[in-house]
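Write out this protein's structure.
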Amino acid sequence: MIRPLLAITCVLLASCSQRTDELRLVMPVLAVDQGIAEQLANNVGARSDLDIDLVPLPEGMTALDALSSGYADLAFEANTHPYRDGIATVMPLYPTVLHIVVREERVSADPARMLAGATVYAGPPDSASRLAVERIMTRLGLGEGAVRFAEDTSVPVDVLIVYAPIDRERLQAGPDFDGMVLLSFGAADEIGKGGDIDRAVLLNPRVRPFVIPAGIYGDLAPGPVLTLAVDQLLVARADLPDATVYDLVGEILRLAPVLSGERPEAFQRLDGDFDAGGWAFGLHAGALAFLHRDEPTFAERYSGVAEVIVTLLLAAGSGIFAAVKIYRIRRKNRIDVFYTDVIRIRDSVDRDASMRERREAIANIRALQNRAFELLVNERLAADDSFRIFITLADDAIRELREASSG
């Protein structure tokens, strides 16, 4: 009875040790972004081993402050935010579009006149839209008191400036837009013609032109609206484990069909084809590893080059071997000529030859020997067995000629 209980206990302990990764995502401030965060957390938690818990943003703290303090692991942040240490980009999620909604009586070609004395909602402090409005006010020479910033849209506002994804139902269900219009930077065909939209993109390289089609927001924008878009990033603490971020990117991309099916206007560009650079915060090492997952290793990348080098070395070796062989054959052919000459001189002297003829023959053989030694010194003949055979043959021929003359 004890052994079965022990086995069951071990199984329970083993199953308890296989816990899923739990990540804390800061709940965004805008209602539109909140809906997307909830959708992302629900789908990832239900269809993977990762759990994403939405945590409220503490009062007086920004989303990046929550990450830096360790309160949360993940947050949404616009790609226009200034760089901050300790924060890393996981991946771009969806484009947020600049919406500038103004009361009709305040619409003016002069931005300073339109903003001065207005109640403006531009998102929470430190958000992309709030930072953009503050920069614009500085350029227009408007002081801090020139604009009243509303903390939310529960109170009537004169100007609403927010970066938000295209979400017709949620945006129209928000503040009261009666008597307000959605401003455009110009006509939709002005992109690339050096107008206001091109100047804005040049001064802010991380934004891009965007056209809101006519009728998307009903009477708020009956015609096409030319505006700007910026990527909404999923960012994390830089010290978040690489393996966790790697798995998170993989799961989000795996669930892209589900996410885009529920919100096609938001997740239409959700894929794994994003660059390693160009983000407000450096790409997390885990995300970079995911991007490079299909790249060949060092050995695979240079295997083709190595094969070519080995082939060239083998060819060079074969060529050198052939050249050496040909060189040796040429040396052998040279010594063969000396063999032939010695035999010819020896056989040209018969038994009845005079002493003078025999001495001339011996002198000719000696001259051949001297010539052979000169070629040996100049390395045109090799000091091998062929050369030694020649010397022996020449000495034997000289000895025969001498013996014949003395006899």
